[in-house]
Design a protein that fits this description.
239 residues, mainly alpha
Length: 239
C-alpha cells in the first residue's frame, strides 16, 4: 500500500515539475512506470492517474519522447486507442494532431498506418479525415489501418449526432439513447449537452454510457483472446 502511494506521489510530482525540469520529470515518470504490481488510482473510462500524469505533463523533448513510446509501444489497438483518449483528455490534443500530420508526411508505410490509426481513434478525427482518406486505398498495413480508422471515425460521427439530438428532445430521449448506445465510446462526453433543458436525464445517460463502454471492453477482450500473439491488430470496433 505504501509503495503504491509513493508511486502515485511520483506521478504527481513529475507532472508538477515538468514545465521547469522536463528531464527530471521524464526520469521520474520512467522510474515510476518501471515499478509494476500496484493498483493505480482509477479516473474513469479505463484511465488512471498514470495516464493523467504522463499526458498532463508539459510538452518538452523528453516528455514527447515518452509520449511517442506510449503510442508506438501499445500492445494492441485497444491500448493505442486508450492512450489517444488519455492524451486528448489530459491536455496533449495538439501533440496528437501534430503527430498524425508528421507521420502522414513520412515516406514509411508503417508511419502511415500509425497516422491513420491514431486519427481514427482521435476525438479530433473530423480535422484529420484527409489523412485517413489519403491511405484508405493502399494495399498493406497502411490501407488496413486507414479502412479501420474510417470505420471508427464514421461511428464517432454517427453516435455524436444521435447524442446531440437526444438532448434536444425529451420525447425522443429514450429512442435516441437506445440507438446511440450501440456505438458509444469514451470519446463521447459523460456530461449532458451545454445549456440543455433536460440535464435531469444525465444520470441515466451516464449509466447507459458506462454499460456500453463495459460491453465494448468485453467485445475487445473476446477478439484479442482469439488472436495468436499479435504485434498489431487494427481492431474494427470503436473504443
Amino acid at each position: 500500500m505504501q509503495c503504491g502511494w509513493l508511486k502515485n506521489l511520483a506521478f504527481a510530482i513529475a507532472k508538477l515539475i515538468s514545465p521547469d525540469e522536463p528531464d527530471k520529470a521524464a526520469s521520474i515518470l520512467r522510474r515510476a512506470l518501471a515499478s509494476q504490481g500496484f493498483i493505480m488510482q482509477a479516473l474513469g473510462d479505463d484511465l488512471t492517474l498514470e495516464h493523467a500524469a504522463i499526458w498532463g505533463a508539459a510538452r518538452s523533448e523528453p516528455i514527447v519522447s515518452l509520449w511517442r513510446e506510449r503510442l508506438f509501444g501499445a500492445a494492441n489497438d485497444a491500448v493505442l486507442a486508450r492512450e489517444v483518449l488519455a492524451a486528448e483528455r489530459f491536455g496533449a490534443a495538439r501533440f496528437i494532431r501534430d503527430l498524425v500530420f508528421d507521420l502522414a508526411a513520412s515516406a514509411d508505410s508503417l508511419d502511415h498506418a500509425y497516422a491513420a490509426a491514431i486519427a481514427g481513434y482521435s476525438s479530433q478525427s473530423n480535422e484529420m479525415t484527409e489523412v485517413i482518406q489519403r491511405f484508405v486505398n493502399n494495399v498493406g498495413v497502411s490501407g488496413d489501418a486507414a479502412k479501420t480508422a474510417q470505420l471508427s471515425h464514421q461511428a464517432a460521427q454517427w453516435v455524436e449526432k444521435w447524442v446531440a439530438d437526444m438532448w434536444a428532445t425529451p420525447e425522443e430521449f429514450w429512442r435516441y439513447l437506445i440507438i446511440a448506445k450501440t456505438s458509444l465510446d469514451a470519446r463521447v462526453p459523460a456530461e449532458p449537452k451545454a445549456k440543455t433543458l433536460w440535464a435531469h436525464y444525465a444520470p441515466v445517460f451516464r449509466r447507459v454510457r458506462k454499460a456500453a463502454l463495459n460491453e465494448r471492453a468485453k467485445e475487445r477482450e473476446k477478439k484479442l483472446l482469439g488472436l495468436e500473439a499479435p504485434d498489431r491488430v487494427f481492431i474494427t470496433l470503436p473504443v
